[in-house]
Design goal:
The chain has helices at residues 15-26, 53-65, 68-76, 101-120, 134-145; strands at residues 36-39, 42-45, 80-82, 87-88. It is mainly α and 153 residues long.
Length: 153
């Protein structure tokens, strides 16, 4: 499929990438630095992460060079953001409380599939494979089918 996106320079060809990599190498992990973030009922301990003003500055420069905010906005609003498949990445759009008509249609299509699969009882074992899903993918599948510890695994 032809992509309508401009060519993107390889990451390692960018000066800001080299600056970022150097800043990361030059910033030691400080096991004495306690940094716990609290958000949404979660506690995240980032103490083992590298942190320095230089690394933060290099990170910001890299994000700007790759137009992170614009691409993030595309993804969050359901626009075409997947350049390899020239389609929307619906990770966030599928989760909004008041979805677009297209997202609502996709949700309904998946619910119809789940209802049919449930009624036919053809699949006892369900494997959810997704990028970055690991534990959450399994939880998503169980929640979608509504069964925990019954006939479906």
């Amino acid at each position: 499929m032809m992509s309508s996106f401009p060519e993107v320079a390889p990451l390692d060809s960018l000066a800001c990438w080299r600056s970022f990599a150097q800043a990361a190498q030059n910033t030691p992990v400080d096991p004495q630095r306690l940094c716990v973030l609290k958000a949404g009922g979660l506690l995240v301990d980032t103490s083992a992460q590298r942190a320095s003003p230089e690394l933060a500055q290099a990170t910001e420069a890299l994000l700007q060079a790759r137009q992170f905010e614009a691409w993030r906005e595309r993804m969050l609003t359901g626009q075409v953001a997947n350049i390899t498949e020239n389609r929307a990445a619906w990770h966030s759009a599928l989760r909004v409380p008041a979805p677009s008509q297209q997202v609502a249609g996709e949700r309904e299509r998946m619910l119809d599939f789940v209802r049919l699969a449930d009624a036919e009882r053809k699949w006892r074992n369900v494997v959810h494979i997704g990028i970055g899903g690991s534990d959450w993918g399994v939880r998503l599948t169980i929640a979608a089918f509504g069964y925990a510890g019954t006939w479906r695994n």
